[in-house]
Amino acid sequence: MEQNKQQEYIVREFRLEDLQSVIYINRVCLPENYTPEFFVYHFREFPEGFLVAEMNGYIVGYVMTRVDMGFDYYSSHKALTEKGHVISIAVLPHARQRGIGKALLSRAIEAVKRRGVREVYLEVRVSNAPAINLYHKLGFKIMRRVARYYADGEDAYVMSLQLE
Q1: Positive or negative, the Cα torsion across 75, 77, 81, 85?
Q2: Which DSSP category does 95 fall into?
Q3: Which CB contacts under 8 angstroms, 24+ apart, belong to 16-21?
Q4: Cα–Cα distance, 76 to 91 (Å, whole number)
Q5: Cα–Cα nearest to 140, from 107, 105, 110, 92
Q6: Does the structure show a pLDDT above 70 at 2?
Q7: What's the predicted TM-score (pTM) here?
Q8: Largest CB tally within 10 Å, which of 12, 95, 154, 159?
Q9: Is 3.30.565.10 the CATH classification of the domain at 2-122?
Q10: What is the pLDDT of residue 7?
């Protein structure tokens, strides 16, 4: 468990009793809504990469990651390799602008790094400037644009971070 300097929030691993709070945050913050089974599956597959942020005893944000196979954006030879994948990240509106998203993502990146992967990637709506700015600050680069990636037809950027 990690506490920030101002002690406003803590970041910790997700527990099954957090499921309803995470589903609520997903529904409030994102148009892409997942089933409870989807969350539980990812928790069971990679528990150290599924984190929540808590303020005053309430879950206010989460990040869910996994390790996928994919082509390494940073390699000259196009071989399949294991890559970290940020599936979903969200913070409730009243808890934003406190560094929670950055803390969640930083901890998730550390979790996938411990798995030995050399790259982490994510998809983000091209219209989501605050998220894109956060990802850039953490070193992510836009690798490509995927047309009509989201169910509503919006394009996505695939952003990637090369790990040391």
Answers
A1: positive
A2: G
A3: 16/40, 16/43, 18/52, 18/59, 18/62, 21/52, 21/58, 21/59
A4: 36
A5: 105
A6: no
A7: 0.90
A8: 159
A9: no
A10: 55
